[in-house]
Amino acid sequence: MDLFDATTTAAQGVPETAGSAPLAVRMRPRTLDEVAGQERLLVPGSPLRRLVEPATPGSPAGPASVVLWGPPGTGKTTLAYLIATSSGRRFVELSAVTAGVKDVRAVVDDARRRLATGGGETVLFVDEVHRFTKAQQDALLPSVENRWVTLVAATTENPSFSVISPLLSRSLLLTLQPLSTEDVATLVRRAVDDERGLAGAVELAADAQEHLLRLAGGDARKALTILEAAAGAALAEAPGDDAVPVVDLPTVERAIDVAAVRYDREGDQHYDVISAFIKSMRGSDVDAALHYLARMVAAGEDPRFIARRVVIAAAEDVGMADPSALQTAVAAAQAVQMIGMPEGRIVLAEAVVHVATAPKSNAAYTGIDAALADVRAGRIGTVPPHLRDAHYAGAQRVGHGKGYVYAHDEPQGVAAQQYLPDELVGARYYEPTDRGFERQVRERLERIRELLRGRRPR
Length: 458
What we know:
Layout: E1 3-6, H1 23-26, H2 47-52, E2 65-69, H3 76-85, E3 90-95, H4 101-116, E4 122-127, H5 134-145, E5 150-155, H6 159-162, H7 165-169, E6 172-175, H8 181-193, E7 203-204, H9 206-216, H10 220-237, E8 246-247, H11 249-256, H12 268-282, H13 286-298, H14 303-318, H15 324-339, H16 344-357, H17 363-376, H18 438-452
Parallel strand pairs: 2-5, 2-6, 3-4, 4-5, 7-8
Antiparallel strand pairs: 1-3
Helix pairs in contact: 4-5, 8-9, 8-10, 9-10, 9-11, 10-11, 12-13, 12-14, 13-16, 14-15, 14-16, 15-16
């Protein structure tokens, strides 16, 4: 069992940490004001703030249990500490990786005894609760139901699929947002200067910070771990003079054994690589597409940005030639948002392979652009009377809906009537190719257009 039991000695803050503790632990926020990137959840009066801050007489009580869902390094453990220490409650941590039902029951039984003897409340933090079996999660239900403990459960996976319904219904679900690059940069700069952190013992060069932030990918814990390793290397290599060692780009590279990919997210390299990535998928060169994907991943490009480009490519370049490519791309974008990196690289690779190897058609893309060109040029016309809304009083007196043929009443499900305005009769915007699924669409569309003109398909 992985069990951590700590009682704070102060009304605010986290359990005291030794100076030898990892930098990410030493720099854990002591108050809500130090928490980065979750402002939406911490507005005055919010359930989470009520749970963390000491209750005032007459104020509503905070929730009995909370499920925190968010990517790694977004502050789930920090919030659990703050919930525990806001009023001096005992903090007990269980890891779902190693703890079993017996461990859960032991913590709950101890918490009940403490409550019965005036020993105070217990906050039970369960990290990676999605790894708990149904039986283990069931063991938590009585303690949540009876408020024997304040349960704070953290997960990186969608709780709707990984947490049992009875436990989820008794808990407040809070979704933590990924930290922005600026959020992580603020935490890194604080760690360099703060007495709890490096206390100004090193300086962090701008290019080194940029590379560090790319590698961290929005994970504050990862950023501080990289910073600590690089600072240690800089201090070990520093000459004996009084100059403050500088953590530069080569120092960061040596510390983590990852060479910086020359990729400026604000400059030409960024646009050149993403352009080559898109054109490789469009050109069906799956190996080149994976190469450029790897360059972006290694450089720390935001995986959500990459996923958006794959979604666009699936719609613009594959289109109806393989409609499932868009489904794959959208699913990949959602999965990357859910699981983050580094596992997200696998999801992105699957979507890139699908888009790159799929048959290609931009017919839908050119079709909407052609229709927009007509609309912007003023070729609009009026809606034919038989298609106009006839549900309001008086509509039929002016001819709205008169002569409309209900498509489902026709033998082929296609009614031979005019749909376009008079000015656009005969206009064609969508011309499917003969590639992939669009070949079937083309054959069917030819028959439909014959029926629309009142002709029997050949």
